[in-house]
Input
Amino acid sequence: MTQLLEKAITQISKLTVAEQNAIATMILEELVPDKLAKKVRENIEMCQNEENRQKNAMIVTDTSAIVAIMLEEPEKQKILDLTQDANLIAPGCLYWEIGNALSAHFKRGKFTLDEAISALQTFQNISLTYIDVQLESTLQIAKQLKIYAYDAYFLNCALQYDVPLISLDKALCHHATTMGIDILEVHL
Output
């Protein structure tokens, strides 16, 4: 009996949370007295609600939104309003893209090294969680949409976590929409 139970637990652990909850509900209805089953179902629903709340509080941000904040662009306040109390997530490439964006401003003579360092300090104060994104699926997106992998990383991140994307990049927003990703629009 113990081996059978261990095997069942191993198989169940491979399922999604929703599938696990459905199985738990079926077992409860068959084996557990009504009063206790009701309490367990309430706990399952509470966990699902918390999981949805946390998921809904996540937003994928791309480089353009972060740069707008760093450089005090006109869209800054709208971005801050849309992302208030959210957990900002981004693929790891964001870090490198920030450096690239700042170096592009040097190249164009838009600001000095001191101004770049000040913008970088603003960036370092933004609470971000970097997400590992699968390269294979990113390349599939890049091929399908005929875009660079850097843009596909952001789309893949939003798809992977089923959360919205905030971006000032109109082309990226268009691609996101075609893939069924919700966009947090930043219009002035």
